[in-house]
């Protein structure tokens, strides 16, 4: 056949003939099916078929004339001209030879699967599409549930016309592509019956941080068009590649999407339609863990074959329960940014009265401000002004021209891999997707600030709030003798923070994970697991969805949070501090009032090690230990060290170590080290006793200062006396360092002092501390202090 090639005849070298999408399918069909990758068979029209259509219908000059002198910023005029070109192509006839070859190829494909008329997906593939320096993804049409030759011929013509959608014209014009130098191939592929199962997309790179050690999988019920378009908030899974390649199946995070709709095949002429999902479907993951791992392994095989980060579409067939790869192309946003050797840090100046109007999934880490403009559909594009905040139910590729004008984008629906998210990343605009109710609670004309600088969650604040941007050049940083660690609380920020120069994590706070991912008092979950009646049961179970067992909920959420931080910095050491809430903080958790007494001074009350072996909390601490063991053993992240806070006596230390041993956390086994926080004068005075029990110390300068000087750091009356540079505190610091050096044990510091005071940093370095753990925003500044000092000495 002159104008058609089956997948088995194609390789990646055929991009000029069949475009990136179809060439990639042929490449995988030919080379990766033997490695276990399932590719539904199909065929593609060549670019010559497209040129033949234009020439036989003599419409080349007409297209040139319609698009001459086009100003793509005039969206109304762009819409008129785009419609005129598409109408020109749709009114033309398909060449007879192409019709004959399409009918023959469709018959051959149907017979291969033992059918008279097979269901196929018909997709465009631009000949400049899916190249690493150009993202044409989603700019042309896709037609599903095509199951007759007449439907196939009509779909092919509509694909040809879709080369001139408004967004495709805008994209080519803005990047200097000649419209008549870009052709279009049409891919015809056996449909996967995911309408009765699930489907989705995956990336072999983290779309936010750019980390190449993650596979990100999005999954929904039904056909995959809903996740690509952002119509549905998808389930999300993160898989850690380094341990997976070593045979350990590490799913770092499960995130349940709302999945309120699913797309099905229609029996009438509409081909597909959306229906509401059931409550059970909404509250269940659309694929199981073994399928997550299977997809991740396939993604790695595809990435290894192409030797670059990949953007992959997949589908599960309800008839044979197999997972199929239906598209794969190079990832075009984060892969281009990978060589950036500077870090841009956005910081919002929040005040107590800052009002949150809406929130959703953050895309990127920037901040945008402006007046809201709610756009309901493409007919309202002309009302959108440069610099406004675009608010919409969802977006599709038609919206790209106005997204480029926006200072920020906010949508009701979508996930971090939906169209709005992908385009926002590419054009560098902050976006908050999946807000659910943004178009209801926000009003056009109102000034807002859209912040994606606070981790996974993005926020829309009332008014235009001040913010700062700090660009840090890290190209010339050199390693220091004193290890510079980082304090990390939020797992959602871990992979971004790991890009900064560091030697590991000196303090990973368990409290942030427990507050944000678990939200309930650990003992109320223990009692629920035992079947006891508890207050706030209904609220807690809503928060637990989709988990039914409170223990598994606690273990998975805690291990995923800890594991994410450990993976982000892997294989560097990550010191995890066990929970260090005070009683008043525990009381504020769901169900907490029933378990916590009111204390006059919680800062020196029932906290730290004293809580761990007390019968009122011991079972919860045992759960913490089980979660940490899961991270080290099941997830394979043996780079974590464990730290125990507020250990008042050596006897307390022994009791805690005994509990940890009983739960399989044994010092020295698989390199496990257990440290104590050095934050009580007793820890310094009795260092020789404590260091017989623990593998080392990390100094908590905040508590050590307050207890050395006898100051309640919560009291504003005497907070002017609180100063880590006080001579008494400095002597405590030196004594602790000297004691650890004498015993050959690790000594670091994770308190606030070195982040605030260069002179404290200098003092610690001069006294040969092993490591200094700093707040991320202080790391670059203190790196210079340490480097200068080490150079002089």
List the helices and strands and how they pair.
Elements: E1 4-6, H1 15-31, E2 42-45, H2 47-56, H3 60-67, H4 75-90, H5 96-112, E3 120-126, E4 142-146, H6 149-161, H7 166-174, E5 184-190, E6 198-203, E7 214-221, H8 225-229, E8 235-240, H9 241-245, E9 251-255, E10 261-265, E11 272-276, H10 279-282, H11 289-306, E12 310-316, E13 323-330, H12 334-337, E14 342-348, E15 356-363, E16 367-374, E17 389-392, H13 400-403, E18 408-411, H14 419-427, E19 431-433, H15 438-441, E20 447-451, E21 457-462, E22 467-473, E23 483-488, H16 491-497, E24 505-509, H17 510-518, H18 522-529, H19 537-544, H20 550-569, E25 574-577, H21 583-587, H22 609-612, H23 618-634, E26 640-644, H24 650-662, E27 674-678, H25 681-685, H26 687-690, E28 696-699, H27 701-709, H28 727-743, E29 746-749, H29 753-756, H30 758-766, E30 771-774, H31 776-792
Parallel strand pairs: 16-17, 17-18, 18-19, 23-24, 23-30, 24-25, 25-26, 26-27, 27-28, 28-29, 29-30
Antiparallel strand pairs: 1-2, 2-5, 3-4, 3-5, 6-7, 6-12, 7-8, 8-9, 10-11, 12-13, 14-22, 15-19, 15-21, 16-20, 20-21
Domain Pyruvate phosphate dikinase AMP/ATP-binding: 16-347
Organism: Candidatus Sulfurimonas marisnigri
Pathway: Carbohydrate biosynthesis; gluconeogenesis
């Amino acid at each position: 056949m002159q104008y058609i090639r089956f997948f088995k005849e194609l390789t990646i070298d055929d991009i000029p003939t069949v475009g990136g999408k179809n060439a990639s399918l042929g490449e995988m069909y030919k080379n990766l099916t033997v490695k276990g990758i399932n590719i539904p068979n199909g065929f593609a029209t060549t670019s010559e078929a497209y040129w033949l259509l234009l020439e036989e219908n003599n419409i080349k000059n007409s297209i040139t004339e319609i698009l001459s002198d086009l100003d793509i910023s005039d969206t109304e005029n762009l819409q008129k001209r785009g419609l005129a070109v598409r109408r020109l192509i749709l009114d033309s006839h398909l060449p007879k030879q192409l019709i004959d070859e399409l009918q023959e190829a469709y018959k051959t494909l149907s017979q291969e699967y033992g059918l008279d008329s097979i269901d196929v997906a018909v997709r465009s593939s631009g000949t400049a599409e899916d190249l690493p320096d150009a993202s044409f993804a989603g700019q042309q049409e896709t037609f599903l549930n095509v199951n007759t030759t007449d439907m196939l011929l009509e779909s092919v013509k509509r694909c040809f016309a879709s080369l001139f959608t408004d967004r495709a014209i805008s994209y080519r014009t803005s990047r200097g592509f000649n419209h008549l130098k870009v052709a279009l191939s049409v891919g015809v592929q056996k449909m996967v019956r995911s309408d009765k199962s699930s489907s989705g997309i995956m990336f072999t790179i983290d779309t936010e941080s750019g980390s190449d050690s993650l596979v990100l999988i999005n999954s929904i019920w039904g056909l995959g068009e809903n996740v690509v378009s952002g119509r549905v908030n998808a389930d999300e899974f993160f898989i850690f590649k380094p341990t997976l390649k070593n045979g350990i199946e590490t799913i770092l995070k499960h995130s349940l999407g709302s999945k309120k709709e699913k797309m099905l095949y229609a029996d009438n002429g509409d081909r597909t339609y959306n229906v509401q999902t059931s409550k059970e479907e909404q509250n269940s993951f659309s694929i199981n863990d073994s399928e997550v791992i299977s997809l991740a392994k396939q993604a790695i095989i595809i990435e290894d074959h192409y030797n670059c980060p990949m953007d992959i579409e997949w589908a599960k067939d309800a008839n044979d329960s197999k997972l199929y790869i239906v598209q794969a192309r190079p990832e075009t946003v984060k892969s281009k940014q990978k060589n950036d050797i500077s870090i841009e840090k956005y910081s919002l100046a929040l005040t107590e009265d800052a009002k949150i109007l809406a929130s959703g999934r953050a895309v990127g880490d920037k901040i945008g401000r402006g007046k809201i403009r709610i756009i309901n559909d493409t007919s309202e594009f002309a009302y959108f002004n440069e610099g406004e905040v675009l608010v919409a139910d969802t977006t599709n590729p038609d919206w790209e021209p106005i997204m480029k004008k926006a200072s920020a984008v906010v949508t009701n629906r979508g996930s971090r891999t939906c169209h709005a998210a992908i385009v926002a990343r590419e054009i560098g605009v902050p976006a908050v997707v999946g807000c659910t109710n943004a178009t209801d609670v926000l009003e056009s004309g109102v000034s807002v600030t859209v912040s994606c600088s606070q981790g996974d969650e993005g926020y829309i604040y009332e008014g235009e709030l001040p913010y700062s941007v700090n660009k840090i050049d890290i190209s010339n940083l050199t390693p220091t003798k004193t290890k510079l660690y980082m304090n990390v609380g939020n797992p959602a920020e871990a992979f971004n923070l790991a890009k900064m120069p560091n030697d590991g994590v000196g303090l990973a706070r368990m409290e942030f994970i427990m507050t944000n991912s678990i939200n309930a008092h650990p003992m109320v979950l223990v009692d629920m697991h035992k079947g006891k009646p508890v207050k706030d049961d209904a609220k807690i179970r809503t928060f637990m969805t989709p988990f039914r067992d409170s223990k598994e909920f606690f273990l998975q959420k805690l291990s995923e949070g800890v594991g994410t931080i450990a993976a982000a910095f892997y294989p560097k050491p990550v010191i995890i501090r066990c929970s260090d809430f005070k009683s008043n903080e525990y009381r504020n958790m769901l169900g907490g009032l029933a378990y916590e007494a009111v204390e006059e001074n919680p800062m020196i009350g029932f906290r730290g090690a004293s809580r761990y072996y007390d019968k009122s909390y011991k079972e919860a601490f045992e759960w913490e230990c089980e979660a940490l063991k899961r991270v080290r053993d099941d997830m394979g992240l043996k780079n974590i060290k464990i730290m125990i806070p507020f250990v008042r006596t050596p006897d307390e230390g022994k009791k805690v170590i005994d509990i940890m041993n009983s739960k399989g956390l044994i010092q020295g086994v698989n390199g496990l080290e257990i440290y104590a926080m050095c934050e009580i004068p007793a820890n310094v005075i009795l260092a020789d006793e404590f260091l017989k029990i623990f593998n080392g110390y990390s100094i908590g300068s905040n508590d050590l200062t307050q207890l050395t000087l006898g100051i309640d750091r919560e009291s504003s009356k005497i907070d002017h006396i609180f100063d880590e540079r006080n001579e008494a505190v400095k002597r405590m610091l030196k004594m602790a360092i000297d004691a650890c050096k004498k015993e050959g044990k690790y000594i670091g510091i994770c308190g606030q002092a070195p982040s605030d005071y260069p002179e404290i940093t200098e003092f610690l370095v001069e006294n040969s501390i092993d490591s200094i753990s700093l707040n991320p925003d202080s790391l670059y500044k203190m790196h210079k202090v340490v480097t200068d000092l080490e150079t002089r000495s």
